[in-house]
Amino acid sequence: MAASSVDSLYFDNAADSEEAARLFDETKGGVKGLVDSGITTVPKLFRLSPQTASQYGTTRTVPVIDMKDLESRRAVVVEEIRRAAAELGMFQLVNHGVEVSVMEDMMAEARQFHEQPTELKQGYYSRDVTQKARFISGYGALRRSSFNWVDTLLMTPAPSDAQDHLPIICRDSATIFIGRIRELGETLSQLLSLALGLTPSTNEFISTNLTTANLNYYPPCPEPEVAIAANPHFDTSTFTILLQDQVGGLQVFHEGAADWVDVPSLHGALVVNIGNMLQLLSNNKMKSAEHKVFANAIVPRQSVACFFMPPIDFSTMSTKMYGPIKELVSEKYPAVYREASLAALWGSLYPDLEGSLRNPVLARLRIAYDKEVV
Known about the structure:
The chain is an alpha+beta fold. The chain contains ten helices and 14 strands. The chain has helices at 3-7, 17-27, 30-36, 70-87, 100-115, 118-121, 168-195, 276-281, 342-345, 360-365, and strands spanning 64-66, 90-94, 133-137, 151-155, 210-218, 228-233, 239-244, 250-254, 259-262, 270-274, 291-294, 301-308, 321-322, 340-341. The protein has an eight-stranded mixed β-sheet. It has a four-stranded antiparallel β-sheet with strand order 6-11-8-9, with no helix packed on it. α4 links the parallel β1 (64-66) and β2 (90-94).
């Protein structure tokens, strides 16, 4: 990466930030490209405001749910999932059926993709959301205060086992991993449906469609105290299954404690978090989890996030509507949310989502939004 390209990211006023973001995109080298260039301070494009600087989490714990002997323990597992989804919106699964070797191979080949020379990755660099495999970097979330310190290979898995559109360097491991995660997603969908009290004839509402798998790579940061790997955000998904490495840094917001909780890295575990789609569909019976990731100065961090939600058709993003499942709405429990499109759930219909609301997208969709302080 040319020195002038890096220098341009140290802009002096807010008016220069859009130009800096454009120039950063043009390098197609990602955050790792910045690190490889030898920077010793974080460019302003990535710097946090003082009020959003990193903080350590509380000692509270994230539920760990054991899926061993699921057939004989189904009622116990369903209740544990119901409680975790309702109270925190996040839990970890162990003995989930995805082999440790499959997860390790996925991590190893994902790392190979991100750590290969920049020129070998640049052909995948794109912000075209219709591209089925694309490399992007520094993207932010709603209510972001800065660009995230992360590089990501976004993959849209094919419906079949043929994943020929994926980069060769990680295609084999991704194909196997995606197949295993799809199977787990189907099981988890059934368990979440049972946790909501839905019968087999109505549980098709909880999506089993794996829409996107993100291979995330967080390079070491020279000033981790002024940057963040992933800004606080809520997933749009019905639910997300996350594979994280042993580095740590993931946190979830615990509303009851009004504080952030560390999500420890457990060998062989997968993290599950509820997304905005399921909070909407469940009529508030399950909670979308706000989460973030710290930057660190020592070693790279990796994760693979797999998002489950209804199939994405860009031609109907603003017209196909989703709302609370009718079986979960009654006179005693009236609908909390109005129907919404995926465009609304992604926040693209709301240009003014900044502010004090913790979950501004769902807050705007509340039926009582215009009648009360949310």
